[in-house]
Design a protein that fits this description.
Layout lengths: L1 H15 L10 H4 L3 E11 L5 E2 L2 E19 L4 E14 L7 E11 L6 E12 L1 E15 L4 E12 L4 E13 L67 E13 L12 H13 L5 E6 L6 H21 L8 E5 L12 H7 L1 E13 L3
Parallel strand pairs: 11-12
Antiparallel strand pairs: 1-3, 1-9, 2-3, 3-4, 4-5, 5-6, 6-7, 7-8, 8-9, 10-13, 11-13
Length: 367
């Protein structure tokens, strides 16, 4: 029931802010700014928090007002200290106790705009004053570059008695100082009036030439050492694309029937994946390692494992057009069993070929 009340209150707050938003200040302009604010709070308390006269009498909910002080120290982060005075409502008739909440919260703006998530600790006084933790989320609606409304919702957990409370808050904050960077221009001096025999020609205005950035990467041509950089690439201070390395891997395994070196049709799709990898990286070579089970003589198994590796090479060359010079077949016989058990399942598992290769791929970082 408490969750439904809080959800309905948050929905009404969202509707209240459904107006044309002012253009908010840039996050970088808020760094170092402090603000003060006032707020109203509604809290739905845990019904297990009973009063002294029995389990049927408990605090149902509360509401109150308070103040806060905050500071923006990065484009995405704020710290906020707040105090809220609560009027609590009990289930049974009679006077209700008062309460309070003293909180220190960290606010994180993931998009550096209006939405934020938050977490912190508080001393929540509902019947007893106890330490609590809270997590929540909110939305800030700027009325101007200095003033904003906000609403947020929090879940509280009181450690000593495992009480769980929910709250919604709406408030107004005002930032100190000018958040806009306005260029100041001094008024031109009024020229002295001098008697002249003839009018004096005025000097032509001087045109201001903006430095040229031909490839639009943010580095002007005079400092750009890579003048044809794609505009979507991240660049360094010299205007050159910043690269990173990514690993691309291939792992191929094909199993065979007992004493056979014939590739079964069910493995052709897996071999095609290996062929596509080799076509994507034309400078890559691949070694096919053939293996057998422990059944039979070692000499026979050595020869059979070589035939199995060569069978895979033939499929890659004849079916998928891979140059044979890029492929190596190597038989290991029964030297590298992956399952040493003397069972039919283990023998079937060991009758195989394996091939693995890893490629480091250079990729440009995007803006």
């Amino acid at each position: 029931m408490r969750q439904h009340k809080i959800s309905a209150l948050c929905l009404s707050l969202i509707c209240a802010f459904n107006v044309n938003a002012q253009e908010q200040p840039k996050a970088e302009d808020l760094i170092g700014k402090s603000y003060i604010g006032i707020h109203g709070t509604r809290i739905e308390t845990d019904e297990d928090r009973t009063l002294s006269n029995g389990y049927k009498d408990y605090i149902q909910h509360g509401s109150g007002i308070g103040g806060e002080f905050g500071h923006r120290f990065t484009e995405s982060s704020e710290l906020r200290f707040s105090y809220t005075d609560l009027n609590l409502v009990r289930r049974a008739a009679g006077s209700s106790p008062s309460g309070s909440n003293i909180a220190l919260n960290y606010l994180y703006f993931p998009t550096q705009k209006n939405f934020y998530v938050m977490g912190g600790a508080s001393v929540l006084d509902v019947i007893d004053s106890k330490t609590s933790a809270n997590v929540g989320a909110g939305y800030r609606h700027y009325l101007s570059e200095k003033a904003a409304l906000y609403f947020e919702s929090n879940a509280h957990y009181q450690f000593d008695n495992n009480f769980k409370d929910l709250s919604a808050q709406i408030g107004f904050v005002y930032f100190f100082g000018d958040t806009a960077k306005k260029a100041t221009r001094s008024a031109p001096a009024k020229p002295a009036q001098v008697e002249q025999a003839a009018p004096v020609a005025q000097a032509a205005p001087v045109a201001i030439v903006k430095p040229k950035d031909s490839d639009n990467d943010g580095i002007i041509d005079s400092k750009d050492q890579c003048k044809m950089t794609p505009s979507i690439d991240k660049v360094d201070s010299n205007g050159c694309t910043i690269f990173t390395e990514e690993n691309d891997e291939l792992s191929l395994q094909v199993n065979f029937d007992n004493s056979k070196a014939t590739v079964k049709p069910e493995y052709l799709d897996n071999i095609k994946v290996a062929a596509d990898f080799l076509k994507k990286y034309p400078h890559t070579s691949l070694t096919i390692n053939g293996h057998t089970s422990s059944q039979g003589s070692a000499a026979f198994n050595k020869k059979l494992s070589q035939q199995r590796a060569e069978a895979i090479v033939n499929v890659l060359v004849q079916e998928f057009g891979i140059d044979s010079s890029r492929l190596t077949a190597k038989g290991f016989g029964e030297e590298q069993l992956i399952n040493p058990a003397n069972t039919a399942a283990a023998h079937a598992e060991n009758r195989r070929i394996e091939a693995k290769v890893s490629v480091k791929n250079k990729v440009s970082l995007k803006r």
